[in-house]
Design goal:
Bound molecules: erythose-4-phosphate
Number of helices: 11
Main location: cytoplasm
Largest sheet: 8 strands, parallel, barrel
Pfam families: TAL_FSA (PF00923)
Strand content: 15-25%
GO biological process, one term: carbohydrate metabolic process
CATH architecture: Alpha-Beta Barrel
GO molecular function: fructose 6-phosphate aldolase activity
Family: Belongs to the transaldolase family. Type 3A subfamily.
Distance between the termini: 36 Å
Structural class: alpha/beta
CATH topology: TIM Barrel
Length: 220
């Protein structure tokens, strides 16, 4: 499976790329806006923080398909192998078709329904991003949508991958992986929560204390 960070925090990417088997970094317009760094500065910094490997994702901003294609080219002029995120709206679907014709890889984003996601894959998207927490937050079932989307892709668009997004808790992450999701993107705080439960720190502290008590030194 592929694990991504969903962030524009370059320092967090540098720190976590050392720890996690990261496949890359995803961003969205809100995430980029929160850091106030223009994409032509931010994206190369993220690439460097990843250690010059790993996939980067950034999103188009234009409302019309032809302009989305122009946005995609601007983003790919900054990072040549970047995957372009396109919202799965009517114009977005048209853009994904045009980008497919030009051989530009895409991710269908803002996916709140399995059939919506399938349409982006049929249009040519390489990845489809269902929004797990946002679905849960509006009374839906994010994991069920991931499940249904995976089944639809398997049946009708086997070349496309689910890249599940919008996570707020480790439980959502685990349920998504148990559902067989092949790639996920996590905000740094959720990724860190996977390995920083209070019980884990307490267990490690107890090992250290017992060792110190017995041998009078901290190490081997
Ligand atoms: C990914 O495509 C989305 O932009 C992102 O994961 C949404 O996350 P949020 O619901 O935490 O904003």
């Amino acid at each position: 499976m592929e694990l991504y960070l969903d962030t524009a925090d370059v320092a967090a990417v540098k720190r976590l790329a050392r720890i996690f088997p990261l496949a890359g970094v995803t961003t969205n317009p809100s995430i980029v806006a929160s850091g106030k760094k223009p994409v032509d500065i931010l994206l190369p910094e993220l690439r460097e923080a990843l250690g010059s490997k790993g996939r980067l994702f950034a999103q188009v901003m234009a409302p019309q398909a032809e302009q989305m294609v122009e946005d995609a080219k601007k983003l790919r002029a900054i990072i040549s192998d970047l995957v372009v995120k396109v919202p799965v709206t009517a114009e977005g679907l048209a853009a994904i078709k045009l980008l497919k014709e030009e051989g530009i890889p895409t991710l269908g984003t803002a996916v709140y329904g399995a059939s919506q996601g399938l349409l982006s894959a049929l249009a040519g998207a390489d990845y489809v991003a269902p929004y797990v927490n946002r679905l849960d937050a509006q009374g839906g079932d994010g994991i069920q949508t991931v499940n249904e989307l995976q089944q639809l892709l398997k049946l009708h668009a086997p070349g496309a991958k689910v890249l599940a997004a919008s996570f707020k808790t480790p439980r959502q992450v685990q349920d998504c992986l148990l559902a067989g999701c092949e790639s996920i993107t996590l905000p740094p705080d959720v990724a860190e929560q996977l390995i920083t439960a209070p019980a884990v720190s307490a267990a490690v502290a107890k090992f250290e204390q017992d060792w110190q008590n017995a041998f009078g030194v901290a190490g081997l």
